[in-house]
Amino acid sequence: MIATSDLPYIDADDFGRRFALRARNLMWLLGAGASAAAGVPTAMDMVWDFKQQLFASQRRVSLQTISDLSSPVVRDRLQAHIDSLGQLPSVGSAAEYAALFEAAYPSEVDRRSYLDAKVSGAKPSYGHLALATLMHADRTRLVWTTNFDALIADACARVYDTTGALTTATLDAPAMATQAISSERWPVEVKLHGDFRSRRLKNTPDELRQQEAQLRHLLVESCKRFGLIVVGYSGRDDSVMDALEDALVSSNTFPDGLFWLHRGDHPPLPRVANLLTKAQAAQIEVGLVPVENFDETLRDLVRLISDLDTSTLNSLAMERQHWSSAPRLSGRRGWPVVRLNALPLDHVPSVCRRVVCEIGGTSEVREAVVKARANAIAVRSSRGVLAFGSDPEIRAALEPYNIVDFDIYTLDPSRQRYDSTERGLLREALTQAIVRQHSLSATRRRSLDLLAPVDPTEHAWSQLKKIVGPLTGMVPGHRELKWREGIGIRLDWADDRLWLLIEPRTVFDGINADNRFAAADFARKRTVRRYNRQLNDLLEFWSIRLASGESDIRALAIGDGLDAVFRISNRACFSRRVGA
Question: What is the percentage of the chain residues whose pLDDT exceeds 70?
Fold first, then answer.
């Protein structure tokens, strides 16, 4: 074990002066901590999320009872359960993250969906914009990252005012990284673990051992050419640390130094300490640099480069801080409000139909409803089939499965607090009600429903067109792939009630495995320059459009049975400091 006092610490101001002179010859390695300020959870955040999911599912308890992951009591309870399993790494182990991820979500498809949800909606923080500014000035040429998000690409799109300046290489195209670096087609970003759309997403022990050899070799070779700055990365996965250790075998590695930016009072992981000690013994300039966070570090660094044009950076940073034209509140207790993408539901159904029969799961229930052409919405729960719809048609659909009970079921608000079967039934019914009311089409996804105008040329959508431009078209190079301006919607629980969350999205028709990546890139390019004012206008449009005010909207508009009736408030949701 290496003593903390033996590690090669240098002060942040010392590192800043060295960086100002060598920036062009230093490459970066970014970990999850670099994306924390942008709203992407860190590896440790996800570790506790995995523990929470495992505890709730295996102990069969509500997530609400263990929702406060900052509580030491909750953490102790979760950790005691994980320890009792006797199969998972101990707290703080380098293998803890990957092992828990695989235990919580064994399927690669589910892991991809999980990461997709975690990075969706993230916007570049000041640190990403500053790094993109350094790229634009040719002060930063090469960035390696273990992250799955597109924050570096989005930041470059804003600073460069184009999406074509940055070359991003992932596991799907390792040759692209080799070609870009060898031909010095700067700037270059290399995603060592792919991105959240990659078909070869790597984030578990077995997968990490199969890390693309070409990218690893390229990292080792690049360490012979550049110095390296590591930030937001703990050193937990073997693949990257193996490559950095392999680089030390060659002479003249890290010619402009190896600087590990470290946050917090705890010493770095033993493997990181060993790497720095070995590098120092090899006569490499090494520094373990205590820092506050990624954003503050980049803010300090750009200040020290006198000829750096930061006008675009300053403008973009101001846009992140002030996104509405509302005046600042004055007075000692004044505090700006923040608009949220949530509309309260003033009325939701309190009862539905319950049918006890011998049918299987929800998929079989849906098939029965479709086969019978029943005007109904139904799901399978442990209490029976829960449904809205025409009583005779529900009976006709389920009669072949030996109905033994047909009654009314009171929907339990406590089950609406989490992603339960009952909340799923309400979400499906609300989506259908909105679709009926506003001439929208719906595509159901696991985490949200995608809605888009059936006919975007109708006059009702003219205001939306003024905000975003064209509302529909074909993706260039993919004649079968049509896009429409739309939204994603989902339900969430807060402040003891259900809320409708809306998220402006590009909705695709004709999407498949072959064109999925083209669709994702098109959507990002189309929306990356939507700044706060435009996003505010979009939320305003959809809030007014969807809100029913004092009127009710119905999912089925039936004359018999039980319909799902909703009322969406026209009062937008805002947040402000408590007591302001």
Answer: 90
Taking residue 555's Cβ as centre, other Cβ atoms within 10 Å add up to 26
272 vs 259: CA distance, rounded Å: 11
pLDDT in tens, 400-435: 999 999 999 999 888 888 778 899 999 999 999 999
> Across the chain, what does the average pLDDT equal?
86
What are the DSSP calls for 221-251, one per residue? Answer: HHHTTSEEEEES----SHHHHHHHHHHTTST
**Quick one: which of 230, 234, 301, 229 has its CA closest to 271?**
234
Q: Do 506 and 358 belong together in one domain?
A: no
Highest mean pLDDT among 68-82, 306-320, 321-335: 68-82
* Domain membership flag for residue 329: no
Q: Examine residue 73 and state whether it is found in any structural domain, yes or no.
A: yes
Which of the listed residues 366, 394, 410 is the one where a domain comes to its end?
A: 410
For residue 131, the number of C-alpha atoms closer than 13 Å in the C-beta half-sphere is: 32
pLDDT given at position 203: 61
Contact 295, 37 (CB under 8 A): yes
- The pair of three-digit structure tokens given for residue 44, joined into one six-digit string: 């440790």
pLDDT value of position 37:
76
Assign residue 40 a region: left if phi > 0, alpha if psi is -120 to 50, beta otherwise? beta
CA 542 to CA 105: how far, in whole Å? 34
Contacts of 553 (CB under 8 A, 6+ apart): 433, 434, 436, 437, 565, 566, 567, 568
CB atoms within 10 A of CB 156: 29
Strand pairing of 188-191 and 167-169?
A: parallel
**Distance separating alpha carbons of residues 322 and 337, to the nearest angstrom:** 11
Identify whether 456 is preceded by a cis peptide bond (ω within 30 of 0): no
Domain that holds residue 115: 44-119
* Model confidence pTM above 0.70: no
Whether residue 316 sits in one domain with residue 398: no
Together in a domain, 521 and 452 = yes
Mean of pLDDT values over 218-222: 94
**Residue 329: which pLDDT band, with cuts at 50, 70 and 90?**
very low
